[in-house]
Amino acid sequence: MQILESYINGKWVAGSGEGLVMHDAVTGEVIGRATTEGLDIPEVLQYGRTKGGEVLRKMTFQERGNMLKKLALYLTKRKEEFYELSYRTGATRVDSWIDIEGGFGNLFANASLRKLFPNQPYHVEGDPVDLSRGGRFMAHHILVPKRGVAVHINAFNFPIWGMLEKCAVNWMAGVPAVVLPAPQTAYLTEAVVRVIIDSGILPEGSLQLLSGMTKNILDTVESQDVVTFTGSAHTGRLLKAHPRLIEESVPFTMEADSLNASVLGKDAVPGTPEFDLFIKEVRKEMTVKSGQKCTAIRRIIVPADRVEDVQIALGQQLDKVVIGDPRLKEVRMGALASKQQVDSFRNNVSEIAKTAQLVYGDLDRIETVGADAQKGAFVSPILLREDNPFKNTEAHVIEAFGPVSTIMPYDTLDDAIALTHMGKGSLVSSIFTYDDKIAKEFVVGAASHHGRILVGNRENARQSTGHGSPLPMLTHGGPGRAGGGEEMGGIRGIKHYMQRCAVQGTPTTLTEVTGIYQANSAYKSSEKHPFAYYWEDIEPGMSLKTHKRTVTDTDIINFANLTWDHFYAHTDITSLDGSIFEKRTAHGYFILAAAAGLFVYPNKGPVAANYGLEECRFLRPIYHNDTVYVRLTCKQKIDRDHRGKELPSGIVKWFVEVFDQEDELAAIATILTMVQKKSPFVKIDRSNIERFLAKLTEDLKPNWGTMTPQHMVEHLEYTIRIGAGQIQGFEVATPEDKLERAQEMIYNHRPMPKEHNHPLMKKGTLEDLKYEDLSTAKAKLLEAYDEFETYFKEDPEAITKNAVFGEMNKFEWDLLSSKHFNHHFEQFGIL
């Protein structure tokens, strides 16, 4: 029998011993065994802390985010291979979509968070704190990656999503992961991990997998580690009490089974959209993943006079649910994960049914399509009805992890809220109502006992992600029985894997530590105007003090007429009595505009655009005949993804301080500019071409490809003549609908691929040489370049065609030539 392998210490290994036998949930067929016996677990944890942790901690948030995005794209292209294996867990196509593509979606969502973090390996949190009257002693909070591993002990119901929703967060924080999936479905987790490891996208040690039960995984965790658990509340409590966790104060996050409730509002009578949405949502949450969801609706709380209506409507909906082989299109509900789950499900339903009435389904009889109900782990959807939910508490205490839910009545909304509380804490609750007052009362009353509350109605029905869908940007967790922890939640989740530290010092020191200019910090002088520097060369603290300007009456009146802002303080000096103003006052936005006029660099340079205004305060009036000057200081740099037909750039936040003639601070603002990044390519002009060609000799061998030096030179000449319009008798090879995406490549700073085949070149063989020797070819290339320059000098608006990128102007041809020449000059090592 095949043993499922673990990926530890940089290699795939199999454990020893019997382990746990894994079965196909649909056919009962044996898949293999999962065991970690004989594996050195302490060594696995230490390997992650050192090998993976050292690399991840040094990466910036932007690098980590782009790594996740690359991995998400890589996995998405290979998603179909996971679906076939997922069917063996009993999951339908829809069930599998939630697990597979939902997991990949977590990578995408967390990757996007890189835009909210600084361009460095650690995060700066909140505002600075002034600890002294003079502003020379202050504090700021930073968060750095923990120097341990994230140990994830996962449940069986989402073998892919359960891993990636956690790992995406710890990787973004700069912490490696050791994953222990539930053995019933570990074969699907293992398949994904194999693809991740083979991709080479993650640094080695960032992800390790233990395939099988591991009782001693917590025995050697350390204070810098983080442990997460998803599963039963009983098991979670046992793990949470582990002596090692207590001794080392190891952070422990638990997401446990919970008895989630959905409430039907008093206004949602039969025939209303809200009633129909409620029935549809309950049916979905009972049957998706065969009810094996920690967020599934277990308690259906409805007005007392609507119990029969709900029971009948739900029964009609459940009648439409086809059960059987999840590969079949007509099947809407597959199997539970294992026969053991079936036994547990039946036992727990039987316990609830001691007081509740079974009103739909049968624990002993099940009709299936395309599958043998006896061989597979199939059960029928079960609907129970508890008419006295305040007295009989089994439905509030026992969770049958499968397609089961219990209807219970309420009289007042306070009763409904009290019933939700009786679950003693859950991951999610929902209410379906079109009355926002009911919604508000329920949310405020129920929120203390739930991690998330969905308010569903006709207006959000099309866009709603539903009761049972945890989202990466929202916290996932709940109080009490639900575990008392939180996962995901955007930035909140990432901070769980980081250590917060309050740093005290002078503003100048903290500017250096945080990478954010702190008020009263020492300025950094620069040789040039700050706007004359590229993004990479700008530093927080880099500053400019401007010349002065006197504000006149005419300035104020003209600004009022231009903007139509005729506020009395600017235009009617007879109305100043009783106001805070003494004289005619300049508009606040005029002060900002005048400040820009003082600090803006007029020449064309790396600053591509004004990107916005983040904060603005007017501290004291500026009157006519007052004189102002500006101190412009780089506050912070934020990286930015390249997109579309624009040159790569980053965002720079500038702290603007406006002073009056008494050197008193009159206004402050933070403005943002888009600043271009330096091109990594050597500038291509005639002199540089000549200089590099002088290094090219016949005996040089390429670093890649099969070209000879003369083939390379003749190829460059050919493409330059295309740009000059001398060769245009060809069709553009890129489809019209993909041209815009292709043209982005011209503008970005990524090098050209090394083994790219140009569509106008011969495939699999070299072109025939045109010239008798390399020297002649060099001369022809320079001649072609001169003709290219002359062509566009005579017609600057000319557009010529490229076989890959379509129509291009001179600016775009120069960008492409820069990449292209650098590419081939590097190919022969002459750059």
From TrEMBL:
Residues 540-643 form the MaoC-like domain. NCBIfam families: PaaN-DH (TIGR02278), PRK11903.1 (NF008868). Residues 12-500 form the Aldehyde dehydrogenase domain. The keyword Oxidoreductase applies. This is Phenylacetic acid degradation bifunctional protein PaaZ. InterPro entries: Ald_DH/histidinol_DH, Ald_DH_C, Ald_DH_N, Aldehyde_DH_dom, HotDog_dom_sf, MaoC-like_dom, PaaN-DH. The keyword Oxidoreductase applies. It comes from Aquimarina gracilis. Keywords: Oxidoreductase. Gene3D superfamilies: Aldehyde Dehydrogenase, Chain A, domain 1, Aldehyde Dehydrogenase, Chain A, domain 2, Hotdog Thioesterase. It holds the Pfam family MaoC_dehydratas. Signal peptide: none annotated.
